[in-house]
Amino acid sequence: MIGHIAKTELQTLFYSPIAWLVLVIIAIQTGMTFTDNFGSIVESQASGYSNTGISLRLFGPQGLLFMLQNNLYLYIPLLTMGLISRELSSGSIKLLYSAPVNNAQIVLGKYLAMMIFGLTIISIPLIYIIFCNFTVEHFELGAVLAGLTGIYLLICTYSAIGLFMSSISSYQIIAVICTVTTLGVLQVAGTMWQDMEFVQDITYWLSISNRTTELFRGLICSEDILYFIIVSSLFLSLTIARLRVIRQKIAWPVAWSRYIGIFALAMLLGFLTTRPYLMSFHDATHQKSNTLTPASQKILSKLDGGLTITAYNNILDRNYYLTLPKARTFDKYRFRQYWRFKPEIKFQYIHYYDKVDNIALEQQYPGLSDREKMIKMAKYSQIDTSLFLCPEEIRKIIDLSHEGNRFLRVLERENGKKAILRTFDDNHSIPTENEISAALQRLVMETPIIGFFQGHETRDYTDPSERGYSRFSGDIQNRHALINNGFDITGVQLDKEVPDSIDILVIADVRTSLESSEMVHLNNYIAKGGNLVIAGDVNRQEYMNPITESLGVTFLAGQLVKPSRYSTADVIISQAGPEAHLLSAPYFYTGMQIVMPGCTALAYSSKKGYRVTPLFTCDSSWNKLEPSNFIDDTIRLNTTIGETIQNHVTALALSRRVNNKEQKIVILGDADCISNGEIGRWRANLPTRNHSLVGGIFHWMSDGQAPLDVRRPLSQDNKVFLDADELPLIKIVFQWIIPGLLFLMGLFIWIRRRGK
Questions:
Q1: Other Cβ atoms within 10 Å of 37 Cβ, number
Q2: Contacts of 234 (CB under 8 A, 6+ apart)
Q3: DSSP H or E segment with residue 202
Q4: What whole-number distance in Å separates Cα of residue 642 and Cα of residue 474?
């Protein structure tokens, strides 16, 4: 009987002008969207630009399927409005009741018809997907079909909702209004009562908003699939119960108790699907872009036992909104990729107020005490002030003054080992996989320690000035700083032996000669196989060459220059060679450029027992041996004093086996290239990557332990096998012929129906 009812309902649908009108409109909209997006990719390719990730660009979260999803709520209510209300208004429902058919068969038959019609709807974008499968290189068919599945499940869910709304009134317009209203409520359900802990998980789950987003990205998650199944089943069950009430004239208290019971059961099942240990995932993308990288997975595999993530939220900090009560559920979902591999993660939230560097807040509430500011902010956020601990109370739990009382999280294992996960002063603010996994790595292995030599006016890792090295080393507010990527930072003196705990020693821009005792301690460190980073600078050869003499490296006299139309001649653009890429592939690549503003060239010998690898070089340059005014004067080669144009080495890597380990040394001809001023500087027409230089050096020297390698495979769907002159034909087919054929088919069936 279900099949018979479905067949009858399908005939009614396909004889209806509304159904064909919906199909034609969808064909026109999807055709225009697809040809516009596809055409822009073809044209950019024809212009010589490269394209990456074409599959999801066309059909992903911002592509064709996303557009279709945004319009479905307008179409499906028009198709479902008469499913049952038509029977109620015409009285034909009584004929169904008199037939040997029960309520469930009636509902399931009509729903099956809508499921089949849903297949007709998704067949339209399926045409474009098949087309791209033959015209796009290595098209990601699996990932795109996951998104198309999301569209189909959404159609089925909308249909179940519309079917129920069609049963509550004999007026079809009321069914349309109620369906659209219900869809609107489900769209915003995730923001309702999020400050009430006992219902926030339920309302967040109930929200239909963004349910297809991960499917559009190629990630199939059991929670999303089961959401559509449970919500569809909920409204189908409500429809069956509704028909039973009409058929048996059940009293409203009994009817409502059944409705509430059905709803409660659905919510219980939905709640269970959100439990991390019950979730399953499949990433259909080639790059596994929705999954943690192997490096992060390896860390989690070592993280046995429980893990608690405690957020300490200072309401006076600029990131206070991240874990307010109403944002907690969303905050937990930021760690969803980690749930997949460690579902027993627990979350705790502690709110407090204390003095923090927040200029905007000071300007907003000048002259107020910290408590008065807290009261203002709590009132603005509609939160009870009793939730916030005072400075004295929070310090009994944890002292965050060394972190500036900023928003942060503490990751703690069952064995008591802890690590700090920070937020950062950039547009994104929240930590990404790099920083989260680096913090987790501290819980499972020893953290490498970088010691910065202090004394003789060297570059200081605590100095925030342009000359200093704080930005890339110990700046807790910079997500790229080494301290946030798996290293500990400390200062080192050479008036005694370098501690065995130091894994890498940094000596940068020594401005006075080292004492003999300091040289002895340094040479002892090198002889033991200690790793070393040495950065020289212009006019420091006298002090730096004694340090590098035992390594077979010399800072050449003078200053390296190369005239350029984009900068003064003393600003050297150095390029990485293929050896640099082999040394530290995650960060160095052949042709990579760095700026070295004031650089000395390096000469080297292999006779000291080291394998020497030139990392960066500058071609067509020379050592300027006489004082020059680089701003006002034209820099010219002076061969009479020995200046010659040639290719000069500006950065070297040295390595050898010592004490059963690989000793690694990097020498830079310029100390400014990794200074605060240069790393944070943008130079017009000079696409440089000085920040990657830091990551590459220390990734190599820590044997790949840190910073983590979270690279993914390169996308393969980067090329279209069509030319721009073929676009007009494609537009005619998808914008005119396909919608036109659907229109003619609908017109033919309608005329034939009228004729009968």
A1: 19
A2: 160, 262, 263, 266
A3: helix 197-206
A4: 43
